[in-house]
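Input record (Table S2, row 278):
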Amino acid sequence: MKQRNISHIILSILLVAAASLAAQAVELSGTAAQGGMLWGKVAPGATVSLDGAPVKVGPGGNFVIGFGRDAGARATLSVQHKDGATEVQDIAVRKRHFDIERVDGLPPKTVTPPPEWRERRAKETGMVRDARSVATDQLDWLAGFVRPAEGRFSGFYGSQRILNGVPRSPHYGLDIAGPVGRPIVAPAGGIVRLAVPDFLLEGGIVIIDHGFGVTSTLFHMNSVDVEKGQVVKQGEQIGTIGKTGRASGPHVDWRVNWGNVRLDPILLIEPEPMKGPF
Ligand SMILES: [Zn+2]
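Output record (zinc ion complex):
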């Protein structure tokens, strides 16, 4: 908590410094940390880039950026105003500690997939990639997020995983445990880009496009209650908790992406995201 406050203060100082140099400050809110997402706003007509890469800006000047699990300590946000003036802001990205998690009792086939799964698996990962590669104009991400299900957090973003004793790549989801059949709701509104009941590792899976490249992926569902292309509101039921795919017990695995950058869902719901401007 202390560390979080310090980075908050540093960011505030940087923003004040930047604001004193330019007529128009950039408004930022959210969590400037590894896995965090920031909501931003600039004057309409301005363009924005993060570490040199262009960032989508809406007609009202809204934009969203995010930081991956292994993001460096600093990021540079550049804003080019309509009148040609350029504003550069340094963002301090808080470093986090990630635990090691052991998960046992998984179906062995899902930990070491048999060769005959390869073709189907390639198709499934392609479908996930396609569903996440959209950057539509919806502003559903702007209203923030709610937890997709009631229940205990049973697995965390960024943790190094050891599955049935085999070391694996980090886990990028927030796992919420609950009984089979408990409702899962949309964490934010959007358009359903993928809805399939039986992926090999994810089981029942839904991907919701919240706009501007921000997507939620939810899986291990017992039932998938929406269809591809369907528009959902925040809090609307999209399925139920299950233990389908590579799951040792009933839970929902919730992931949030900003394009290819994997964000930590927990920072969107708990602790309360910092509300800006800082
Ligand atoms: Zn998980």
